[in-house]
Amino acid sequence: MKEKKNAKYNLEKKRIMFLQFGLIFSFVLVLTAFEYEVPFDEPKDIVVEVLDDVDMLIPITYREPERPKEPPKIKKIELLTPLLVDNEEEGIDYEPEDSFDNPDDEVPLVVKEDIEEYVEETPFAVVEHMPVFNPDKNDNYKQGNMDLFRTLQTSVKYPIVAQESCIQGKVYVRFVVTKSGDISNIEITRSVDPILDNEVIRVLKSLPKFKPGLQRLKPVPVYYSAFVNFRLQ
């Protein structure tokens, strides 16, 4: 059996009445808020002190112009009377001598030997044909570069002093491959320790010759860079 709501307690019939009461109450609350006066204190009288015009004026001062300085007095120079000298002395005849040699004499020709001046060429960083390490074994720059790194890594001897001191790292080096293929101007660009640097320089000096770099089919000096990694096992 379904439960039925009692019609006496049904609030749906009184919904309009409640809505009207709500609107009336809201309207009255708004009117009250507008009509409410907030009490506040009356402002006090502000007294402004009037300063005299004389006190407000700042006296203006003017700088007196500087008087022109008097020009320095020029001292008069007294000229001495000229002293006349008699150049013609008795018994002395002056004959001017020519400081040059006799123009009729033959001047010996001095032949200078040709001296060849050595002009140091600036090494190139990149050329058409880069140097090739160990050309008897390698055909191009890439193969030679890989062979150079392997040779450096296997040829260096890790100093015992550096191992005991736990010194390790990469030593970067730069050198010049001359026009004849020799190694010169060895320079450590990033050092780890002088002991390791000297070992790398020693190995570089013992390397075989390079095939020199070519620029327009002409041998030129070229910069070459490499590094050796010292690492504790």
From TrEMBL:
> What residue stretches are annotated with the TonB C-terminal domain?
143-233
Q: Give the UniProt keywords, A-Z.
A: Cell inner membrane, Cell membrane, Membrane, Protein transport, Transmembrane, Transmembrane helix, Transport
Membrane disposition: Single-pass membrane protein
Cite the GO molecular-function annotations of the record. Answer: energy transducer activity
Q: Would you identify the family this protein belongs to, as annotated?
A: Belongs to the TonB family.
Does Lipid biosynthesis count among this protein's keywords? no
The processes (GO biological process) annotated in the record are: protein transport; siderophore transport; transmembrane transport
UniProt name for this protein: Protein TonB
Entry superkingdom: Bacteria
Q: Which InterPro entries match?
A: TonB, TonB-dependent_transducer, TonB/TolA_C, TonB_C
PROSITE patterns named in the record: TONB_CTD
